[in-house]
Design brief:
- The protein is built from 16 helices and six strands.
- It is elongated and about 135 Å long.
- The chain folds into four domains: 77 residues; 72 residues, Dna Ligase, domain 1 (2-Layer Sandwich); 84 residues, no CATH class; 94 residues, no CATH class.
- 26% of the residues are buried.
- Strands 1-2 form a two-stranded antiparallel sheet.
- By secondary structure, the chain is mostly helical.
- Keywords: Cell membrane, Cell wall biogenesis/degradation, Lyase, Membrane, Transmembrane, Transmembrane helix.
- One of its GO terms (molecular function) is lytic endotransglycosylase activity.
Length: 405
């Protein structure tokens, strides 16, 4: 009776274990369903089941811990390398965050030659952006390092760095910057300088009319034509004067001539030749050849016959020349009549034209003619007869394109 009573409770407990579907595997449940012949066998079976379940729990815990370690490590490395978009975004926002909205307008000046780091420091000093790091982050994000423009910009306090970068790379937003371009004349430059600086143009004209005034080298003969170096100049400073602007342009030209190795005493002549090249050439590949034509004609005591020179003397474009202008001997710049170089350069030549004036290509050419205005194709020859054939080819192109009349 006693054994039967104990067996009854052992069987009942076994049934409770075997019904535990949440933790037992299918194989374990099959094993549990096998008949048990003694309490010792039942206890042994329970011990084995418990051991397997504990091992399974330990395995799961270890797996979860390892997975968490891997995830943490990856995120940590990504954060250090700056590759996490979430991290980058939160960092950028923190570097740019202001409690208040954009404030009052301020004038901000970027001087020529300043790098992004220097600009960033000045922006922080004027309380336009919050941190230098935020501005440099925005510069890198927009790949704008080489696009930052010199000049005076209208900004606001407490701006986002991205917004500031957008303004500083916008050439139309820059104020107080004088842009001198290759091929421009003195008149072009001083008008642009007056507009950019706010100084009356008459002050520039007075200096030009006074001659060198200790600004120009003696070999320039008192003429500023050709002696203004192309480039960008900040003329927004309150201490800027007409004389300081002109001096800066001439000093920049002298520095460029030194850089190109054009010796003193030859500079006025080379600038003169280069200015003609600048106005006659439509493609870089022809600069050396046009330079050679000029020197060949000078050596053979021939008039240069360059329309750009005659046009400069009349204050018009080459396309506006009339027969009367071309035959007027009283115009000292009429190089169809007068031999030698014109009295002064006719524009501010760029580096390529100055280099061509120093190193003309080898050749016997005396004539050249553009035969296709669309492609710029220009032909060179030493024969006058062949030159007229080129002229006929040019006229045929004009007629074919409805431009002959």
């Amino acid at each position: 009776m006693g054994d039967d009573f104990d067996s009854f409770f052992d069987d009942t407990n076994f049934e409770k274990v075997s019904d535990d579907h949440d933790v037992a595997t299918h194989g374990e449940r099959l094993q549990e369903q096998q008949p048990v012949h003694s309490r010792r066998e039942l206890r042994e079976r329970r011990r084995k089941l418990s051991k397997r379940r504990n091992l399974r729990v330990i395995f799961i815990v270890v797996f979860v811990v390892m997975a968490l370690v891997v995830v943490f490590t990856v995120r940590s490395v990504a954060s250090r390398r700056g590759t996490s978009p979430d991290s980058q975004q939160s960092t950028a926002e923190a570097l740019d965050y202001y409690d208040s909205q954009e404030g009052e307008e301020v004038q901000f000046t970027v001087n020529s030659g300043e790098d992004a780091s220097t600009i960033a420091q000045h922006l922080v000093q004027q309380d336009i952006v919050k941190t230098t790091e935020g501005f440099l982050h925005a510069v890198n994000a927009q790949n704008a390092g080489s696009k930052l423009q010199p000049g005076v910009f209208t900004l606001r306090k407490h701006m986002s760095s991205a917004s500031v970068v957008g303004v500083l790379i916008d050439t139309s937003a820059a104020q107080g910057i004088l842009q001198v371009k290759s091929g421009e004349t003195v008149s072009d430059v001083i008008n642009a300088a007056a507009a950019a600086s706010g100084i009356d143009v008459s002050q520039f004209q007075a200096i030009i009319s006074a001659g060198g005034n200790s600004i120009l080298p003696d070999e320039a003969g008192g003429s500023y034509e050709g002696w203004f170096e192309p480039g960008s100049y900040n003329v927004s400073d309150s201490s800027t004067t007409a004389q300081s602007v002109i001096t800066q342009l001439v000093q920049a030209r002298i520095a460029k001539l030194d850089e190109l190795g054009i010796p003193e005493g030859q500079r006025e002549e080379k600038i003169n030749v280069a200015s003609i090249i600048e106005n006659e050439v439509n493609k870089d590949e022809y600069r050396g050849k046009v330079s050679r034509v000029i020197y060949n004609r000078l050596e053979q005591d021939m008039p240069l016959g360059m329309d750009s020179v005659v046009a400069y003397g009349n204050g018009v474009e080459s396309s506006q020349l009339t027969d009367a202008m071309l035959n007027d001997p009283s115009n000292p710049y009429n190089d169809r009549v007068n031999k030698g170089l014109p009295p002064t350069p006719i524009s501010n030549p760029g580096d390529a034209s100055l280099s061509a004036a120093m190193s003309p290509e080898e050749g016997d050419w005396l004539y050249f003619c553009t035969v296709n205005l669309q492609t710029g194709e220009t032909k060179f020859t030493a024969s006058e007869d062949e030159f007229y054939q080129f002229r006929d080819e040019y006229k045929q192109w004009l007629a074919a394109n409805g431009l002959d009349g």
